Amino acid sequence: MSGLPLDPSAGGGRFPGFDVMAQSKHWDEVTTSVVVSRLGMPPDIRFFRGTEEATASALCDQLLDQKNPPRVPVVNMVDARLADEQTDGWHYDGMAPDGQSWRDSLAALDEDAMVHSGCPFAEAPWDAQSAILQAVLDLGSKPWHGTPAARIWSLWTRYACTAFYSHPWAWDEIGFPGPAYPRGYKNLGVNEPGGKNNRLEPFEVADARPAQDPLRKGNS
Predict the structure, then answer these.
(1) In terms of Cα–Cα distance, which of 139, 122, 7, 150 is closest to 59?
(2) What segment(s) does the record annotate as region Disordered (predicted)?
(3) Backbone φ and ψ of 144, nearest 5°
(4) Is 83 left (phi over 0), alpha (psi -120 to 50) or beta?
(5) Which among 28, 48, 104, 174 has the fewest CB atoms less than 10 Å away?
(6) For residue 107, what are the contacts with CB-CB under 8 A and spacing of at least 6?
């Protein structure tokens, strides 16, 4: 889960004062242009039709816990990939190509929401949306509307997380100082809290709340 919006300026609670864009002077022109473009107006919706956009937006907000603005425009970024057929280059055997699988699964979410809450998924309360998605996740390899639920979950999270973690706001949140090229990194390894085995670069900010790291022992 993401936890956006950030502040204080702009690394949020775990990396206070960190701003990845302060590192842009060390990037090459092409890299800077690509990263800066992600902070501008999001691309227009070209793939999702009708109610699909609203359903996809609600789904992505749930997957990334984006309850309040500012939000990373994940659905616009996912839509752009699908419109341009920029897939991962594979899909599960017996499962429709990604674009059609997105359309089918969004329609299925609306069906479930009508049964669960009497309205489309995007109009259901936040907690109701969460319950519907939890039910899909809990199915694991069992079928959900004719397709193994885990495969649909993989489709959603692959696209949503790829979009989210390509955005500078997400980099601020996780303390990632951006592309290594051309400057590079010299302190390879994982930094440990409490000053042990300090692997931070001079331009990085220490995690002020390491206990919130879900990958550290006991936090998962």
Answers:
(1) 122
(2) 191-220
(3) -130, 110
(4) alpha
(5) 28
(6) 52
Residue range 13-24, pLDDT digits in tens: 788 888 899 989
User: CA-CA distance, 174 to 176, in Å (whole number)?
Assistant: 6
- As given in the structure block, the two tokens for residue 201 are 């670069």
Measure the CA–CA gap between 148 and 161, rounded to whole angstroms.
20
Q: Torsions phi, psi of 143, nearest 5?
A: -70, 145
Tokens of 107: 């329609």
CA distance 187 to 166: 23
Going by C-alpha positions, the residue among 76, 98, 79, 95 that lies closest to residue 87 is 98
